[in-house]
Task: structure prediction
Amino acid sequence: MAVLVAVSCLAPVRAQADQRPAAPRLVPAPVSLEATGEAYALRPGTRIVVRSAAGAGAASYLANLLRRSTGYALPVVRSETEDGIVLDATGLTGLGEEGYRLDVGATGVLLAADTAQGLFRGVQTLRQLLPAKAESLKVRPGPWPITGVHVSDTPRFAYRGVMLDVARHFFTVDQVKHYIDLAAAYKINMFHLHLSDDQGWRIAIRSRPLLTRIGGRTSVGGGPGGHYTQADYSEIVRYARSRFITLIPEIDTPGHTNAALASYASLNCDGRRRAPYTGTEVGFSSLCTGKDVTYRFLDAVIGELARLTPGPYINIGGDEAKSTKRADYRRFVARVQKIVHAHGKSMMGWEEIADARPSADSVAEHWNPVTGTQEGTELARTAARRGVKIVMAPADHAYLDMKYTAATKLGQDWAALVEARRAYEWDPAKLITGVGEDDVLGVEAPIWTESLRTVDDLEYMAYPRLPGIAEIGWSPAKGRSWAEYRVRLAAQGPRWAARSVNFHRSPQVPWP
Ligand code: TNX
Result:
C-alpha cells in the first residue's frame, strides 16, 4: 500500500491537508481519483504482465504505444505472479463492462477490470499518468515516471460517440483510423460513419455497383470523391473494434440522397437520373417513397451493410427530409425500420424519426440547436415519451464543424459559434424539458465536412472540443465545472503537440 501523504509527523493537521499531492490532470475525469505522491518508474526492463488471455489486447496496445516513445522492449508476458505493469481482467471489480480500477505505486501498477474493454479504457487513463512526451511517435529520452494514484472509474453513459461525414469529403481508411485513434484516448466507444449524402456515396454495394461508380465520384467543390470497398469497410470495423469502439454505419434517407438518385434512374419518381451535386445546400433530394423499387433497393443496401457490421445499429439518417411529404415520411421510416429489423439490427436515426412511431429498440439522435421547451424540442420529447432512447448531439454545443469564433476560417456558423467552453458547459439530461437521465443513452460529437478536406482540418475542429463531449459522456455530472475542467484540458495540449495534432489553441484554455 502506498503512503498517501508524505509530510513530517510534526506538521500540524491543517498543513497535512494542504500538502496533499497534486492530482494528475485527467480527461475525462474519473469517478474517484486519489494521488499518492509516489510514482512508478517505467524502465528498460519493465514488463507488461497479463493475468489471463483477456488482457492481451489492451496489453499489446499499451506496449506498442509506449515502445514508440520510450524505445524500451516492454515485453507482454502472461503470468499469475509476476509484477510490473499488471493487467488483470478477473471480473471482480463490480464496475461494469467499461469500468476499471487503477493502482499505481512505487513498486508496481495494477489495472483491474471485469472485461477486456474495461482494461482498454483503463489503459487510456494510464497513458495520461505518463509525461506528455510518452505520446511522441519518435523515441525520446526518459525518465518515464507514472504518477501514483488510486483510481476507480465507470462511465455515466453507455453511448459516447463521434460521427464522421465521409460523404461531403472523402477520407481514406488510414485517415479514418487516425481519427478513431485520437478519439479512443478519451474513452469514446461509438463511431457513427456518415456514408452517403447528396454529394457522395462511399460504400460499395455488390448488388448496386453504380452507387460507387457514379455516386462515389463526386464531393463538395467538385473533387474526385472516393469510396470504401467492402474489404476497406471491414478493415475500419475491425480497427474500431480493436479499440472497443462499435461502428454504426449511416445511409441517409429519404433525403440527402442525390448521389443515389444520380446513380439509379429508377429511384426517382420521374424515372430520371439526377445530375451529380457538389454544392452544400440541404433538403432538396428525396427517394421515391411510393415505389416498391425504393424498398428493394434499401433491403439490398441494408442487407449487405448489416452482414458486414457486428454492431447492433443501422442508421437510416432521416434528417431534413424537406422534399418528402410528412405522411410519406412516416410510412417510409416505418417500412425501413422493418427492413432493418429483418436484417437483425435496430434502427438509429436523427431525431426526426421520432415522428414516425419508431419501436422501443430504436435510437433517435437529437441535433437541433434548441433547449428547454423551445419550438423544435418536441421530437426529442416525443422520442422519450415513446420509450425511444436519445443520443444528445445538440448542434450549438456538440457539432465539431461549427466555427469557434467568427474569425475561424473553417466550418459553419448556422447553429452557433462554439468555443471550447460552450462545447463543455451543458448537461445531456438537463437540456430539454421532458428528457431526463433515463431517456438519454449518451452523447455524440458529429463532424460534418462540407468545408473540411484534410486530417489537419478535422484535428483543428475536433481538438480541443471533442474531449469535452467525451467527458460529458463519461464523467459524473456532479461537480463538473469549466473553471476546473479547463486546467485539465490544458494538460492535453502538450500530449497533442507530441503527436503533432493540429489543435485550436483556444484562448479560453490556460495552455502550458
Ligand atoms: C445539418 S444536422 C445537417 C447536415 C449538415 C450540417 C452542417 C443534420 C442532421 N444535418 O446535413 O452537414 O447541418 O453543420
